[in-house]
Design goal:
The protein has 463 residues and is an alpha/beta fold. The chain has two domains: 28-50 and 319-461, Aspartate Aminotransferase, domain 1 (Alpha-Beta Complex), CATH 3.90.1150; 65-315, Type I PLP-dependent aspartate aminotransferase-like (Major domain) (Aspartate Aminotransferase, domain 2), CATH 3.40.640.10. The chain is 39% helix and 12% strand. The protein is globular. It binds ligand F0G.
Length: 463
């Protein structure tokens, strides 16, 4: 027999499913009343009333049998647990930083870092601050300044690294603010609030050089580092033959530290860390960790969580996994684009972002078009997505409102959870919503807290 090798067109899920969790179906009538009861805020819905939950990719992934078995063999000692040393050695091996401080999740690492280094009058440059990062910077009296390249703000524009930092804007900020007032320069990989778009190795290197010249520490928000490494491998010249692990090591070799939410590319349900090279800064951060998280060899995680992260970080770097992961978003993106729906192009790592401003031009930004679309997806198909627009970013520190730069609906994919037929169903729901888009109306805020209002605000449709 001399068979021609078969080249598969389908990138299949690189796992088989041995433990399942039922999802529950509701009727549209039920969803109408559930959404009203939730104050028209999907964050306030009960998860059991959601069919496909794309609210976030954070902590919602499926763990591997290897992670579960590691958890069974954990060491829960208060101080010096072997689980901590396994965790620390994985983080050091991949990220290369000397000091590894475990935290219960990413924002705890942010809290410790910014409380330690940032104060009134300081400016923190970032490609785009994630909402918790911004909140921690501002909570410490500093200014969070976003400076992604202009291509990164144009949803339809195709560019391989739309998460890149605008280097001129960075230098101008250093010139006008003075390096003494910039305690750290951050880079978020991938750029979540800007469409899950990657940052190139070239840009990471340049930011690092600029930071070095001015003696400013350079930290990376590393949440989706493995996905970013895959984009570098597949889109940047010179990296095709390198493994995601080699690429990740190079990325972090240019930085002085990182904050990490292990709920993303740590493939875990909880956990995070702050990793630092500077001994003195690490010591200050450790002292604060004891106050707010726990003893520095568990810092907010159980031993079994640290075991899950130690294995998860490597699983996130597996090529077969990353190929499937990134194909999920491009597969949905292609279906939506061919139906005429505008999305952030090219599709990012963990999510597809629909351009609601483009889809719903009849809804003014301050009547929240992306919020309206998010609610319509729930009503029509039981899908839960998240608004990244003027509800999330519109409220200014002085209480006024300003339209956000973009009105996006993010469909974030939990890792290793949904299959291709879920994605096919999802595309049908979105396309049906698109076909009825003229019927969608805006919303108004009825009540909301002063910070991070999107989590608990109560809204009402504007008739
Ligand atoms: N940085 C980025 C870029 C993030 O996306 C997140 C979380 C954090 C920091 C904070 O990490 O949740 O572990 O405290 N993003 C989630 C999301 C919540 O849905 O995008 P955390």
């Amino acid at each position: 027999m001399n068979l021609t090798p078969f080249k598969s067109q389908t990138i299949i899920e690189p796992f088989r499913i041995r433990s399942v969790e039922p999802i529950r179906f509701t009727t549209m009538e039920e969803r109408k009343s559930l959404l009203k009861k939730a104050g028209y805020n999907p964050f306030q819905l009960k998860a059991k009333h959601v069919l496909i939950d794309l609210l976030t990719d954070s902590g919602t992934g499926a763990m591997s049998s290897d992670q579960w078995s590691g958890m069974m063999a954990s060491d829960e000692s208060y101080a010096g647990a072997s689980s901590f040393y396994r965790f620390e050695s994985a983080v050091r091996d991949i990220f290369g930083f000397n000091h590894v401080i475990p935290t219960h999740q990413g924002r705890a690492a942010e809290n410790i870092l910014f409380t330690t280094i940032a104060g009134k009058g300081d400016v923190i440059p970032n490609n785009t601050h994630f909402d918790t990062t911004r909140a921690h910077v501002e909570h410490n009296g500093a200014e969070a300044r976003d400076m992604v390249i202009s291509e990164g703000k144009q949803p339809q524009l195709i560019h391989p690294f739309k998460g890149n930092m605008n280097l001129e804007a960075l230098q101008e900020t250093i010139r006008s603010t003075g390096p003494d007032r910039i305690p750290v320069i951050m880079l978020t990989i991938t750029n979540n609030s800007g469409g899950g778009q990657p940052v190139s190795m070239q840009n990471i290197r340049s930011v690092s050089e600029i930071a070095n010249v001015h003696d400013i520490p350079f930290f990376i928000d590393a949440c989706r580092f493995a996905e970013n490494a895959w984009f570098i491998k597949t889109r940047e010249e010179g990296f095709a033959d390198k493994s995601p692990l080699e690429i990740a090591r190079e990325i972090f070799s240019y930085a002085d530290g990182c904050t990490m939410s292990a709920k993303k590319d740590g493939m875990s349900n909880i956990g995070g860390f702050l990793a630092i090279n500077d001994d003195r800064l690490a010591q200050k951060c450790r002292s604060l960790t004891i106050l707010t998280e726990g003893f520095p060899t568990y810092g907010g995680m159980a031993g079994y969580d640290m075991e899950a992260v130690a294995k998860g970080l490597y699983e996130a770097l597996d090529e077969g996994y990353l190929r499937y992961r990134i194909r999920t978003t491009s597969y949905l993106g292609e279906k939506l684009t061919s139906a005429g729906i505008s999305i952030v192009q090219p599709t990012g790592g963990h999510a597809v972002y629909i351009d609601a401003k483009e889809m719903l031009p009849h809804i003014h930004s301050l009547q929240y078009p992306a919020w309206s679309l998010t609610n319509a997806l729930y009503l029509l198909g039981g899908i839960r997505a998240v608004e990244i627009g003027s509800v999330m970013f519109g409220l200014q520190p002085d209480g006024s409102e300003k339209p956000a730069a973009m009105e996006l609906v993010r469909l974030a994919f939990p890792r290793r959870v949904y299959t291709q037929s879920h994605v096919d169903y999802l595309s049908e729901v979105i396309i049906s919503t698109f076909e009825q888009r003229d019927k969608l109306t805006g919303y108004k805020v009825v009540s909301a807290p002063e910070v991070l209002r999107h989590f608990s605000a109560q809204l009402e449709p504007v008739e």
